Amino acid sequence: MGSTSDLEVMSAAFAILEQFGVPYEKKVISAHRAPYLLADYASSARNRGIDVIIAGAGGAAHLPGVTAAYTTIPVIGVPISGKAFGGMDSLLSMVQMPSGIPVATVAVNGAKNAALLAVSILSLSYGELVEALDEFRRKQTEAIEKTEI
Ligand code: RP5
Question: Residue 19: which pLDDT band, with cuts at 50, 70 and 90?
Fold first, then answer.
Protein backbone atom coordinates (compact mmCIF):
# COMPACT_ATOMS: atom_id res chain seq x y z
CA MET A 1 0.00 0.00 0.00
CA GLY A 2 1.04 3.55 -0.59
CA SER A 3 0.75 4.78 3.00
CA THR A 4 -0.04 3.60 6.51
CA SER A 5 -3.26 5.60 6.07
CA ASP A 6 -4.36 2.80 3.66
CA LEU A 7 -3.95 0.15 6.34
CA GLU A 8 -7.50 0.18 7.62
CA VAL A 9 -9.01 -0.46 4.17
CA MET A 10 -6.33 -2.99 3.21
CA SER A 11 -6.83 -5.01 6.41
CA ALA A 12 -9.88 -6.61 4.75
CA ALA A 13 -7.45 -8.24 2.29
CA PHE A 14 -5.22 -9.51 5.11
CA ALA A 15 -8.25 -11.12 6.77
CA ILE A 16 -9.16 -13.06 3.62
CA LEU A 17 -5.58 -14.19 2.96
CA GLU A 18 -5.32 -15.41 6.55
CA GLN A 19 -8.69 -17.19 6.29
CA PHE A 20 -7.43 -19.09 3.23
CA GLY A 21 -4.00 -19.73 4.76
CA VAL A 22 -2.22 -17.83 2.01
CA PRO A 23 1.22 -16.53 3.08
CA TYR A 24 1.70 -12.88 2.27
CA GLU A 25 3.82 -9.87 3.08
CA LYS A 26 2.54 -6.38 3.84
CA LYS A 27 4.54 -3.36 2.79
CA VAL A 28 4.15 0.38 2.63
CA ILE A 29 5.93 1.56 -0.52
CA SER A 30 5.01 4.86 -2.09
CA ALA A 31 5.26 5.23 -5.86
CA HIS A 32 5.79 8.95 -5.33
CA ARG A 33 7.76 9.26 -2.12
CA ALA A 34 10.09 6.28 -2.60
CA PRO A 35 9.95 5.27 -6.26
CA TYR A 36 13.31 3.46 -6.12
CA LEU A 37 11.95 1.16 -3.40
CA LEU A 38 8.97 0.30 -5.57
CA ALA A 39 11.22 -0.43 -8.55
CA ASP A 40 13.33 -2.79 -6.41
CA TYR A 41 10.31 -4.48 -4.86
CA ALA A 42 8.35 -5.05 -8.06
CA SER A 43 11.26 -6.02 -10.28
CA SER A 44 12.44 -8.67 -7.82
CA ALA A 45 8.97 -9.99 -6.91
CA ARG A 46 8.77 -12.96 -9.29
CA ASN A 47 12.26 -14.21 -8.41
CA ARG A 48 11.40 -13.94 -4.72
CA GLY A 49 8.50 -16.36 -5.25
CA ILE A 50 5.65 -13.84 -5.16
CA ASP A 51 2.74 -14.92 -7.39
CA VAL A 52 0.35 -11.96 -7.14
CA ILE A 53 0.63 -8.37 -5.89
CA ILE A 54 -2.30 -6.46 -4.40
CA ALA A 55 -1.57 -2.74 -4.48
CA GLY A 56 -3.85 -0.34 -2.62
CA ALA A 57 -3.46 3.41 -2.93
CA GLY A 58 -5.41 6.64 -2.88
CA GLY A 59 -5.30 9.98 -4.67
CA ALA A 60 -3.28 10.00 -7.90
CA ALA A 61 -2.85 6.28 -7.29
CA HIS A 62 0.11 5.27 -9.42
CA LEU A 63 1.20 2.43 -7.16
CA PRO A 64 -0.38 -0.52 -9.01
CA GLY A 65 0.38 0.89 -12.45
CA VAL A 66 4.05 1.49 -11.71
CA THR A 67 4.25 -1.89 -9.96
CA ALA A 68 2.81 -3.54 -13.07
CA ALA A 69 5.35 -1.70 -15.20
CA TYR A 70 8.16 -3.46 -13.32
CA THR A 71 6.76 -7.01 -13.25
CA THR A 72 4.73 -9.44 -15.33
CA ILE A 73 3.08 -11.18 -12.36
CA PRO A 74 -0.59 -10.20 -11.89
CA VAL A 75 -1.18 -6.87 -10.13
CA ILE A 76 -4.54 -6.17 -8.52
CA GLY A 77 -5.26 -2.54 -7.73
CA VAL A 78 -7.43 -1.37 -4.84
CA PRO A 79 -8.51 2.26 -5.26
CA ILE A 80 -8.73 3.83 -1.80
CA SER A 81 -11.11 6.68 -1.12
CA GLY A 82 -9.48 9.77 0.30
CA LYS A 83 -10.93 13.08 1.37
CA ALA A 84 -11.59 14.27 -2.18
CA PHE A 85 -13.80 12.86 -4.93
CA GLY A 86 -14.97 9.79 -2.98
CA GLY A 87 -12.19 7.65 -4.42
CA MET A 88 -13.06 8.43 -8.05
CA ASP A 89 -9.54 9.86 -8.51
CA SER A 90 -7.92 6.61 -7.35
CA LEU A 91 -10.36 4.46 -9.31
CA LEU A 92 -9.68 6.24 -12.59
CA SER A 93 -5.91 6.25 -11.95
CA MET A 94 -6.02 2.46 -11.80
CA VAL A 95 -8.78 1.40 -14.16
CA GLN A 96 -7.64 3.71 -16.97
CA MET A 97 -4.23 2.08 -17.36
CA PRO A 98 -2.88 2.69 -20.85
CA SER A 99 -2.80 -0.31 -23.14
CA GLY A 100 0.03 -2.78 -22.60
CA ILE A 101 0.40 -2.65 -18.81
CA PRO A 102 -2.71 -4.16 -17.18
CA VAL A 103 -3.89 -3.65 -13.60
CA ALA A 104 -6.88 -5.73 -12.44
CA THR A 105 -8.80 -3.03 -10.63
CA VAL A 106 -11.47 -3.81 -8.02
CA ALA A 107 -14.08 -1.49 -6.53
CA VAL A 108 -13.20 1.55 -4.43
CA ASN A 109 -12.07 0.18 -1.05
CA GLY A 110 -12.60 -3.33 -2.47
CA ALA A 111 -9.70 -4.95 -0.60
CA LYS A 112 -11.74 -8.04 0.28
CA ASN A 113 -12.50 -8.77 -3.38
CA ALA A 114 -8.88 -8.07 -4.30
CA ALA A 115 -7.79 -10.84 -1.94
CA LEU A 116 -10.50 -13.21 -3.21
CA LEU A 117 -9.34 -12.55 -6.76
CA ALA A 118 -5.75 -13.20 -5.69
CA VAL A 119 -6.84 -16.52 -4.14
CA SER A 120 -8.64 -17.45 -7.40
CA ILE A 121 -5.47 -16.73 -9.37
CA LEU A 122 -3.40 -18.74 -6.90
CA SER A 123 -5.88 -21.65 -7.11
CA LEU A 124 -4.68 -22.25 -10.69
CA SER A 125 -1.33 -23.34 -9.24
CA TYR A 126 -2.23 -24.41 -5.69
CA GLY A 127 -5.05 -26.97 -5.97
CA GLU A 128 -6.00 -26.95 -2.27
CA LEU A 129 -7.37 -23.44 -2.74
CA VAL A 130 -10.02 -24.69 -5.18
CA GLU A 131 -11.93 -26.54 -2.45
CA ALA A 132 -11.38 -23.65 -0.04
CA LEU A 133 -12.93 -21.23 -2.54
CA ASP A 134 -15.89 -23.58 -3.14
CA GLU A 135 -16.43 -23.81 0.62
CA PHE A 136 -16.25 -20.02 0.97
CA ARG A 137 -18.94 -19.64 -1.73
CA ARG A 138 -21.12 -22.37 -0.14
CA LYS A 139 -21.03 -20.64 3.24
CA GLN A 140 -21.76 -17.28 1.66
CA THR A 141 -24.80 -18.73 -0.11
CA GLU A 142 -26.00 -20.45 3.08
CA ALA A 143 -25.77 -17.17 4.96
CA ILE A 144 -28.01 -15.54 2.38
CA GLU A 145 -30.46 -18.45 2.46
CA LYS A 146 -30.70 -18.18 6.26
CA THR A 147 -31.14 -14.42 6.31
CA GLU A 148 -34.41 -13.30 7.84
CA ILE A 149 -35.54 -9.74 8.22
C1 RP5 B 1 -1.31 7.70 -1.50
O2 RP5 B 1 -1.70 8.90 -0.97
C3 RP5 B 1 -1.54 6.69 -0.43
O4 RP5 B 1 -1.84 5.45 -1.01
C5 RP5 B 1 -2.69 7.24 0.36
O6 RP5 B 1 -3.94 6.64 0.03
C7 RP5 B 1 -2.72 8.70 -0.03
C8 RP5 B 1 -2.51 9.62 1.15
O9 RP5 B 1 -1.30 9.27 1.79
P10 RP5 B 1 -0.91 9.94 3.17
O11 RP5 B 1 -0.77 11.40 2.90
O12 RP5 B 1 -2.03 9.62 4.15
O13 RP5 B 1 0.39 9.27 3.57
O14 RP5 B 1 0.03 7.71 -1.89
Answer: very high
